[in-house]
UniProtKB/TrEMBL annotation:
Name this polypeptide is given: NADPH:quinone reductase
SUPFAM superfamilies assigned: GroES-like, NAD(P)-binding Rossmann-fold domains
Domain of life: Bacteria
Pfam families: ADH_N, ADH_zinc_N_2
Amino acid sequence: MRAVRIEGTGDPEVVGVERVEDPAVGAGDVLIEVVAAGVNPIDVATRNGTVPTGLPAVLGWDVSGTVRDTGEDVTRFGVGDPVIAMSAQAATGRGTHAEYVALPESLLAPAPRELDQVEAAALPLAGLTASQTVTELGSPSNGAEELLVVGAQGAVGSLVVQLARLNGWRISTFVRPSDVTRKPPRGVLRQYSEEHPPPPAGFSAVVDTAGVPEHLRSVCDEGRYLTTTPFAQPEPSRGVRIVLIGVEQDGDELARLGTLVDEGSIEPGKPSAVVDFERADWAHRTLENGGTRGKLILVP
């Protein structure tokens, strides 16, 4: 099969498409024929060596595809089922940027009916990160508590806003000046930007999905600062509790997110570009340069 692979770490030019062996389907595994796979910052960090992985490596954490085979003891999925999954490639070595990937059944979820399979590829990593962040955040203790979401225009941030709203939070956002809208999006009280910064110590909690640790100043004393970016954590001060969110593989949780999508309760962002495997190096370069709106998606 064809796969997007790196032999060593470095600039986007180390990313290439190679012929590799088809994955073995073990007991409890499901073989997925990949329709689409998202490119995420973790893929960039793995490729440039910031996040270690075994080499050579097939990259990719997100996958949307169709079941083509199942191993012994698989009971929830059958051949032909449309599915989505997240594979923690850096830890497991099972990358999704390939024509096929075999994953444990426990990591899979039915693909949302309201999304096509390319759109569905944008959900797994971003959705699980957002969901686990909001679970850690919990519900507000009273109706006056307010949350600031930094990077709310991104794939993770936009889902944090939607899920936190379902949990009862009053939400403001920090976005690029170009992303400030005349009317705040649904569920958002106020929009802040570099041109109109948020007030200091004005929020019970901050969720930082963009790696801007300066927003620690926005949290009230003894509040909470949750970040999804391990390389840009603030130094604790004023009794603020710093929480780093490390996303975990979870097919059941992903299925619940798919149900929320089908019910219309949440809406993942649309892909910003869909390109074939041979342009994976372009996708890495574009993501690394910043400024994209929506996920970059690879298709075989």
